[in-house]
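> tool_call: predict_assembly(chains=two)
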Amino acid sequence: MVRAALETRRRIGQGPKPLAIFVPVASVIVASLLATLPVVVANGWFPDFGFLALISWRLLRSDPWPAWWAAPMGLANDLITGLPIGFSVALWSATMLALDLADRRTMWRDYWVEWVLAAVLLALDEWLQWRVAAITGARVPPLAMVPPLLISICIFPLSAWVASRVDRWRLGR
Amino acid sequence: MATARPGWSRRAQYGLFFSFLAVIAGIIVGLILLALSIFAPAQFQGVRGAALDVTGPISGALHSVSSTVAGVFSGAGDYWDAASQNGQLRRERDAMRRQIIQARAIAQENRQLKATLQLREHQQITIAVGRVVGSSLSSPRRFAILSVGTNDGVRVGMPVRSADGLVGRVIDAGALASRVLLVSDRSNIVPASLLRGGIPVIAQGRGDGTIDVRPLEVGRNPFKRGDIIITSGTGGLYPPLVPIGRVVKLDDDGAVAIPLADPASTSFAIVEPPYEPQAAAETP
C-alpha cells in the first residue's frame, strides 16, 4: 500500500496544459473582472480581487510570470475596476519587487508567514487607496478602511487555495 | 530574481539584472500614470471610456440575470403577508390621493404666481434613461455603472437622477456605458436646502452609502429626524427641488442622511443636461 502510494503514477496525456504559462495571468484578470459583477453596494467592502489573486500566485510560486508582467496586469486591473490609472501598475510592480526581497530574507516559510505577508500587503493596498482617495478629494475617515481590510485578510486563504488548485490543474498534476 | 546570484552564467546574471530593471521601470511608469490621473484626470477620459465599453455590457448582461432571480425571490416573499399588506397599502393610497389633490392645487397656484412675476421656467429635458448595472465594490470611492453612454448623448458632468431622487453625476462616459459619481461619495458636494423651511445646507457623501448634511450658517442645528434634503440648484449643475436624502441621525453640528435614490434598488436612472449649461464647463 505504502509503496504503491510512493510510486509515480504517470499516465499518458497528463502533463502541463497547453499555454500553461498564461494560466496564472488569465486567472488574475478573471479575478479583476469579478469587479464587473452586477452588484450594487452602498459601501466598498468587497476585497480587491485582482490584488488578492496576484499575491496568492506570487506567494505560491516565485515564477508565476516574469516580474515585469505585473505592470500590464495592473493596468488591466485599473481599467476594469475604475481605480485611478497607474495605481495598480505601481503597486503591483512594487509588490513583485518586495516579495522578491522577502524571498531572500525569510529563512523559512509556512502558511502563517505567508498569511502575515499577505496581510501586510493588503493593508498597504487599502492604505494607499485611502491616501489616493484623500488626494482626489474624497477623504473618508481612516476607520472606514478597517472592515474591508479584515474581510480581504480573511478571504486570502481561500484565494491562495484557489491559486494552488489552478496551479496543479495547469501543470497536470 | 528569487536568489541572489544564479550561478556563474553571464546570461542568467544579465537576465536577472534586466528583469530587475524592468520591474523598477514598471513602478516608475505606474507612478507617472498615477500622478497624471490624479492631477490631470482629463488625459485619460478616452481610455477610461473605452474600458467602460468593454466591461459595462458584461455587467449589463449579468444584471438582467441577477435581477430576474432577485425578482422571483422578492415576488414570492410578497405573497407571505399579502392580506395585511393590502390593507396597509389601501390606507396609504387614500392618504396619498388626498395629498396629491392638495399638491395639484398648490402647483396651479404656483404657476399663476410665477406667471404674474414673469419668472423664467426651465424645461425638464431627459437626455437618456439607463439602468444602474454595477458599482465600485472595493474602494473608498462610490461609483455606479450606468448602461447608457455617449451614443445616447451622455456627456461627462451631467447630473443623474431617478424617480426617487438625486443619484449623482457622470464622471466617465464610454460609448455604451458611463460611470456615475454617487451622492454618497466623499468628493461629491451638493448645494442643498431643507425642504422644511428652505434653510440652505451642504450635502457631502460619507463614502459608506450615507450623506453628511451641514447648515451653511454655523450655529443652531436646524435638522430633525425625518427631514427631507432637496437640491437648491445653486452652482447650476444639479436642477433644484430634487430630493437627495432623509435625515436619520443628528450629530453636533449637522446630521447624517440616507439617500432617497438608493442605487441598489434604483432600476432606472435619468440623465439630464446640466441645469445651467455653462456650469458643465466648469466642473472637472
